[in-house]
Prior knowledge:
mainly alpha
Amino acid sequence: GVPLNIATAVIIPIVIAAASDANIYPAQEFFLLLQRSMVYDVRDRAAEALRVRGKAVDIDCVGNALVLSLLLLSSFSPVWHLGILSCLALWLSREWSLTFTLPQLARLYE
Length: 110
C-alpha cells in the first residue's frame, strides 16, 4: 500500500482544489441557468452547464494531470506516490462531477 506520511500528505490540497474546480463551476452555471428561467427543462440545463463550463474544467484537469504526471519519472518513492495519487484524484474528481454532481442537481430540481 501507499504509506500516509508527510510526503504523501501533500496530496490533500491538490485533491480539494481539483474536486472544487470539477464540481463548483458546472454547478454554478447550472444555478445561473435556473435563475435565468430559460425554456429548457432541468436536464437540458444540466447539459448546457456542462457544455459551457465542462471544457474549461477538462482543460484544467488534463493540464494539472500532465504536469503532475512528470512526478512519475522520479525514483524517489514518496514523490512517485504523490504523482500517481494526484493524477488519480484529478481523474476521479472529474468523473464524480459528471456522474454525480450535475445529475443529482438536475434530479433535485425536477
